[in-house]
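Structural prep section.
Before we set up the soaks we want a predicted structure of the protein with flavin mononucleotide in place, mainly to decide which crystallisation condition to try first. Input record follows.
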Amino acid sequence: MAGKASAGDDSGGKSMTVFQVDDPERKQSIAREILEALPDWFENTEAREQYIRESRERVFFAAEREGRTIGFLCLKETGSCTVELAVMGVRMEYHRQGAGRALFQAARDYAAAAGYAFMQVKTVQMGYYEDYDRTNRFYRSLGFREFEVIPSLWGKENPCQIYILSLRESPREVILNRRSYRGKYKPEKVPEADLALILEAGLAAPSGCNRQTTSLIAVDDEALLDRLRAEIDPPVAETAPALICVLTQRINAYRDRCFATQDYAAAIENMLLMIRALGYESCWYEGHITDTDRIGDRLAAILGVPEPYELVCILPVGRAESEPAVPKKKPFEERAWMNGFGNPCRR
Ligand SMILES: Cc1cc2nc3c(=O)[nH]c(=O)nc-3n(C[C@H](O)[C@H](O)[C@H](O)COP(=O)(O)O)c2cc1C
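Run finished without errors. Recording the tokens verbatim:
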């Protein structure tokens, strides 16, 4: 069960830092220091000692204020897609000052970037003890939702409430939060299964007269990536662990109408959204790939692409090292209307 965290705590926070701890000895000593200072929540010595022992192996975040460690949080993998907020404690005198929320935010960012889809946390069900009711309210305020109650896990006086939180964005959030990322990528391989999901999203896009003029090649082989990168001048996506190359066939959809550009644009946007939905970043690189120096043709030759396919765009895929820049967009009111040009659309 995760210990009680500070609740409703947006006030203080000045000079507080949250950081990840790797050294097992340090993890254990922080866990001991904090949990022993919270006897109301961690009174059972056996359980407390277990948390302290296990903290050595956990992903561990600590919060510090003015040189003093004031709280910590541990994450534990409970399935390939799910991580558990296994234990969390904040010194009593620092409750309601943002430490719990800051620790959670760091843990959530970590878990999302590591590719987990869900975070779970267990506590005593609402309605039994005032202290744990506050813990329940805190988790709910972070976005956790009731998943299941297991009455037998900790005995019938302490029914175990499992909360669950999706670490993935909603479709609207994916669309609105997608950005062109031009920063560095973490050196983590993208699983082939994720690349397949991205390719599948691309191929699911609409195409003029269903001509399906777009084809795709994912590349994650380091030697091959190096050969491709050597052709890209000025260099882009140099640190991306995978690239998706977009191929088109400029064939007519009907009569003399060719929709190949629209087709691959729709495929690219689908892929950019899937990339974001899976927690990766990307950027639509078409400008200098298709410029007069024909970088796309040289990339196509390396990949053995036959005529009449044309390589028109590359999309890097990887976990971002930094936040994407947010470009200025024109206001909604300037570009979207209702029932005729210029009529406001109320939101
Ligand atoms: C057809 C097309 C070609 C693009 N080519 C490039 C490119 O070569 N290099 C680049 O850095 N960004 C490229 N972009 C990304 C745009 O610069 C980017 O979408 C735009 O600045 C808006 O930013 P946002 O994607 O974060 O909303 C391209 C976008 C489109 C739609």
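Observations: The CA atoms of residues 100 and 124 lie 18 Å apart.
Flagged for discussion at group meeting.
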